[in-house]
Amino acid sequence: MLKGETISTGAPKTCPQCGVTPKLEVLHSAAGFYIGTQCQCGPYSRESLYLATRDIAVELFRRGDWPRRDTERH
Length: 74
What we know:
Blueprint: E1 25-29, E2 32-39, E3 42-46, H1 54-63
Antiparallel strand pairs: 1-2, 2-3
């Protein structure tokens, strides 16, 4: 992962295109569920690794204890 690719690694907290400061939430893509943000432009950041189910993602988000992307290894 590149520095600044997530909010936790330095991406702007406000989208430079639409001016929205997105809030963390549970989101879904074709790859799975994740904790991230979206703004008026669409998905903005993915802060967690992908999670198998919405229930798992919601519980980890509620606890504030999800697997963070900034610990990913390539």
